[in-house]
Amino acid sequence: MNESWNAFLEKAGARVENDRVECFSDIGEEAKAATESDIIADLSHFSVVRVTGDDAQGFLHNQFTNDVRRVSGEQSELNSYCTAKGRMLSVFRLFRLADGAYALRMPQEVSEGFLKKLRMFVLMSKVEIEDASDSLMRFGVSGPHVSDALQGLVGTIPDAVNGVVHAGDITIMRIPGPHPRFEIYGPEAEMARLWTGLAEVAKPVGHDAWALLDIHAAIPTVYEGTVEAFVPQMANMQLVEGVSFKKGCYPGQEIVARMQYLGNLKRRMYRAHIDTAERPFPGDALFSVHSKSGQGTGKVVDARPSPEGGYELLAVVQIDCAEADDVHLHEADGPKLSFLNLPYPVETKDAPQPS
């Protein structure tokens, strides 16, 4: 994390550990605020990869699951990077900065491996790839009133999800969430001014509260514990516009396409609540007596404290086990998952009804 930005946040009341803002106040209160009111959250726990050069668009288009040609100064997209076996190394949001450079936002813990892999394929392409995390500050805002507050400070905001606008050197991107939700990127001085203005109407929160909104939106994230764990369709990427089936080849494309067109998807991502004091982590195993798979019942994608107590989570689960509504964390006598509705329709049989 940028040292002076870290100092700015700590002065504002942030508790910073391991280069990320843990919280500003009680984590349960922050979770409640995230789901009901206006919040502002530092996003330094995400890395920002910057890609420039004459061949940048074509190079990125040939590497990722989504159609990079659709990304413009006004439009962002969810995207992913796969192995040759179609397993996701990273899920990221791809957009363009005010200077035209491509930017990829992903969890800090997977960015080093991502950069190493991507740079292997540059070869003779006119492309430059750098980690811009220390030079580009970033935070998010969400809530029923943040649109008016943000527009009052910058003049214009994106009207639709995935939309992008630029105000000078500031880039503002709208992303899915239960309320209007935006990510903002820019130079430190201007970002500090915006934070100060927005914090007058929005409650500062830590990374858990922000990630809870991704769980509510059922947007998957790949963390260190789930690198190469999922084919895109297992994490519902085709349902959140994170995969294009009309573009050309990319690593893993044959396997991803075969799963889509042969209809042999046996696992998908569910949203659930779990009543436990023990925090689940990405990659934690799930158990069901109904599973006959040698690969296990499923894995946790992400889990965050719920304002109702326990944890809300996303998990990739065998479809037949989820439909039997008998899935537990870790083992047979572990806490049971109570399935919740997804915010978008699915392509398979109906999900278990919420409890």
From TrEMBL:
Q: Which domain of life is it from?
A: Bacteria
Instruction: Kindly list the biological process annotations in GO that this record carries.
Output: iron-sulfur cluster assembly
Stretches assigned to the GCVT N-terminal domain: 23-239
> Which InterPro entries is this protein grouped with?
GcvT/YgfZ_C (IPR029043), GCVT_N (IPR006222), YgfZ/GCV_T_CS (IPR017703), YgfZ/GcvT (IPR045179)
Q: Cite the binding residues for substrate.
A: E183
Q: Which PANTHER family match?
A: TRANSFERASE CAF17, MITOCHONDRIAL-RELATED
NCBIfam families xref list: ygfZ_signature (TIGR03317)
The entry's protein name is GCVT N-terminal domain-containing protein
Q: Which species does this protein come from?
A: Thiohalomonas denitrificans
